[in-house]
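Hey all, sorry for the wall of text incoming. These are the two entities for the joint prediction.
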Amino acid sequence: MDRDQIRTAVLACLKTIAPELEEAEIRADRPLRDQVDLDSMDWLNFLVALHQRLGVDIPESDYGKLSTWDAILAYLEAKLAA
Amino acid sequence: MIEFKLPSLGADMDEGRLVEWKVKPGDPVKRGDVVAVVDTSKAAVDVEIWQEGIVQSLLVQPGETVPVGTVLALLSGEGEAAVVPAPAPSPARRPVSPLARKRARELGVDIERIEGTGPSGSVTEQDVARAAEASAPVDRQAQMRQAIAAAMSRSKREIPHYYLGETIPLATAAAWLTACNAERPVAERLLMAALQLKAVALACREFPDMNGFWRDGAYVASSAIHPGVAISLRSGGLIAPAIHDAADKPLGTLMRDLTDLVRRARSGSLRSSELSEPTITVTNLGDQGVESVFGVIYPPQVALVGFGRIAERPWAENGSLSIRPTVSASLSADHRVSDGHRGALFLADIRELLQHPERL
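and here's what came out:
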């Protein structure tokens, strides 16, 4: 799966939580949760959606690596390539 | 004959608009069945029925707005002769004025669905205008703001609030949660919010003066513990539906119920019992970064517990200083029902419960 496919999948997962979201509004280097107003429940649901769509299991200890849009894409790319 | 009335789904609801019937004359219904969808100022709600019987007649039609307490339908109960609904008569041709027909076309209203109030049931231009108004899109946000304004103004006008705050150490709970979640698949992970909710529910068992309703000048404690969870909606506003029997549920079940409730609150598919039955409210604004929250009680409830942000803070104990995760918990309570002393003990009980997460 290439970066564009991952990006499409992540956006689709995010839109299940925040349907009003447009990709152009996302500042890729800024904290994602603040931008999209994701609370703990939204965040968990986002991770569940990622797991269901991409088969990636993200442990709690890795949450710190997922702060921005760019960081999420890089993390998933590495996980899927492993 | 049993009368099925439009229930009140909260202190901020005076009326509701029937969106859809889920039953028809002749259908049997039992307790807990969803029989109608009603639009309130906050959300479209699946309205349940709490009697058993056979639906005899539907007295209110979709699109009509009626006050709380209006009889929506009649049912025959056990032992009563069920009236088999007569076959619908073939529709008689109703007179429609040409002006009304033209107006209906302009406004996109189906003239066949309009009840005429003119001579011999004829449909008039005014009938068309009324029907168009009734089917116009609802400004949900404005309505919700008005409903919140009415309920919160009433609360501040009628309820003598007192407020207490307590900093609760969460090192044990956080460590327990981390270890617990490490063994769970992502879809079954727990949030600290579930532990906090359970702690409040358990504390309500010991403090019935925090869990109930002030009605008609007196307090009535609730035998059930149904905490209402304040849920912010992405379009603005909030809603606080109940999680039923929270004190009796294992944490995994409570977390599943909480996830489901948040999802349904945000997608607009709550049930009437979830809106009419909260016995205390729990609000959590920690994710928004606030240190603490002192909430406004949702009448006729008598207490609200708030949680702020969980963060590492300096903590002094036994003469030494350390850094620990803590949370600021607050209580807003009704002074007509309890005093600060009881409120303080209630918060202390919540704190103590959170020190033993394995028992929650």
